[in-house]
């Protein structure tokens, strides 16, 4: 049984800030956003969590093993070093989607994302250490079969990107609807999905769906662990086995 | 008449590097990728260009005004500070898609993206200063109407993201196919498109298409300039006018 | 009784790298060095340690509470994200100077700092958790009395800097020779010293020495803790008390 | 005849900010300071300038070729991405010390470094392009003879640092007093000095003085250029010649 702990990270009142008193230079916003994401990757990553950039002003972290004090420290570290602050909602659940649903609600109840008086909310309940287990996280690392040969070395970069993006857009929706999973593009031709306790058949189904819908061929390695980093590294090794033996779905456990 | 200069940025042999001798920790890859993007944003941005993260291992820059020497310096600065190197293809064209097509071909002709012996290619021809003009770039800044009220404050963050992502996936394909434009998600509910010389009707058409296809309501501000940063700032101001007066399409020129 | 754990961080073969095949641009070296230091500050800091930039190619960390596995991860994270690697020597001792002496020897025994075949050494023994204690670290936070009024707002910035630097140069030597302490300039008019079990009289003596030798008036707050961050935060609060009540030496314990 | 343009960079009201409402975590301050320095290195460096970290809350840039608009952009870029702002004073002079003196005065006249109402001052006059010349900057790059063999591989890191630091403290004071030069430690065993029009004898004198005073043996390469980056790269090459032929002073011009 999985038990995913999810943190919804939301920059406070970010939209209005980007245009007040007048629009800020885009290159600075891009630099700010991507560096904030890089820092959060390290801040959560050094505690065995994963962060996904999602929309950059809203990010999603898989935070099993990270308690409220650590969340406070992350929040403080950001406010010490950035011109913006962020709010955090933390929740857990058998299904990653439900966990995120609760995490988001904690923030929504505290006020709008564009409420200038709602700042540095920190709400929610991490999993107590005694209840953590080796199968809390199931993480699937997908990539596109022969992406370099088929796309990167053949099409212009935007058309390659359209293919990868279509594969992602289709997978993210299908995995969310059919399998209560959260799927995130992580660069190149890689997608990482945080899943409930799915079996091989579920992954075969998702890969088949994407193939049928947009003609993009995926494969996937699946890992399990008490933390995102453990499950994620296992998934990477399983994906390497796919590459080696030509399989479409490989479980590390 | 637009005359877009595009730089295709490709990390050399990146995929193999990420798994050699065995898979590298995902948080480090995420940090590396997003910081490299942030640095390129500044390196091009300080020369009035824009960079889009696209797939992170392949990025697209709008580089009008940036000559070959500056490209060399950017390439060298990255190799001085990162464990990876990158190749650059530079090309220009009336249509951004054609320009990118040529830029990509310059890299493809030099070898595969995963050829371990192809390193730090720099090919192509920037626009000579004497031929630069105030209408070289047409840049459109889209956002989603009432995204905070309709999505962020109402749905869980992933379902919000699905809506934004669907809007983006639809727009990027339509603008590429119907209008030879390159559209990039830049965070939040914002999309920036680099366009040929399009009129208001073309933008209305694209917005209508996205609304019909996936029920996401966009609006857009359009700017023009000799550089991405000039056109981009004008587009932002035009988008602010949309916000103020409720229009769907606003031109800054 | 203090028990300081020190990590000597040394970039492998850095000098030769900076001039091979020919001298690299200074701004890139400065960026590389200061970002590596910033990253190490976070990597150690997120585990309650402190890092001091010292000479940038060699840095000193106070690493109580950070085990060998964490050191490995820090080492790997740097090699995943930088064009250089680093070696680490870890040692402990009643006296910070002795601890650093042992840490440095571990690296020296493995080869020269400019031996191109000596890479990513990791040697030494952290303190086992069961032997850690609340008084393992004694940390002193010095600053210069009225630095803004007396120097910054009165002299040109270089002459201000000469005064601060003279105060630092004198203190670092005296504290090392007379009190077996390691003192580091941390910006502004601030110096942090890692000390053995010193009493108030020792600090009064050091402050008096600096005043006599170079006419720079210091004050100091002293903290104690099982980690650098605990001791450091206590020292800051003690220094705030000095500011409030005009004392020259304040202990937080 | 040299004509050095100097920018005094001062973080506004930084000291009070670091302890309000209570002391901020030192690792965050260190990260903030070193990243701000890294960013300024790139922002000025991409325009052929050099920045020196000095005290981190006050920095000194050699900014020949960087006009007021570029200074404005740098100032804005920092305020867009950091929780602090900075003021800039720009001045020029035959002597680097005089130029910095004027630059500092521009800030002092606008208010105290700790005046909470003095924010983002930008004052001063860059050199007009028509008056720039190839010998505007004279830059000397010193290092310590055989630092690795004599210190790094023999002493504990702090005692090595004491030797390097003593050499620097002595050189910085002597070069300022005797030769109107600004000398900055840049890591490792390297010191960069910005000088007026000095001859070989002046450098021999300074090296001899440091040798006599603190028994640290320096050598130096000297470059000249219209910008810091040009003069700096020439100085590096000259220093490489010193290494090759055993000379103590080498001019690139």
**What is the first-to-last residue Cα distance of chain A?**
14 Å
Named CATH topology of the largest domain in chain A: Alpha-Beta Plaits
Summarize model confidence as the mean pLDDT of chain A.
97
* Greatest interface by residues involved: A-B, 76 and 76 residues
How would the global form of chain A be characterised? globular
> Approximately how much helix is present in the residues of chain A?
40-55%
Task: Assign the CATH superfamily of the largest domain in chain A.
Answer: Nucleotide cyclase, GGDEF domain
Radius of gyration of chain A: 19 Å
Largest sheet of chain A: 5 strands, mixed
- The number of strands of chain A is 10
Task: Based on the coordinates given, report the CATH architecture of the largest domain in chain A.
Answer: 2-Layer Sandwich
Low-confidence stretches of chain A are: none
Total separate domains of chain A: 2
Order of helices and strands of chain A: EHHEEHEHEEHHEEHEHE
Q: Structural class from helices and strands of chain A?
A: alpha+beta
Specify the number of helices of chain A: 8
- The percentage of residues in β strands of chain A lies in 15-25%
The side-by-side strand order for the widest beta sheet of chain A comes to 2-3-1-4-5
**Name of the CATH class of the largest domain in chain A:** Alpha Beta
Family (chains A, B, C, D): Belongs to the archaeal-type GTP cyclohydrolase family.
Function (chains A, B, C, D): Catalyzes the formation of 2-amino-5-formylamino-6-ribofuranosylamino-4(3H)-pyrimidinone ribonucleotide monophosphate and inorganic phosphate from GTP. Also has an independent pyrophosphate phosphohydrolase activity.
GO molecular function, one term (chains A, B, C, D): GTP cyclohydrolase IIa activity
InterPro entries (chains A, B, C, D): GTP_CycHdrlase_3, Nucleotide_cyclase, Rev_trsase/Diguanyl_cyclase
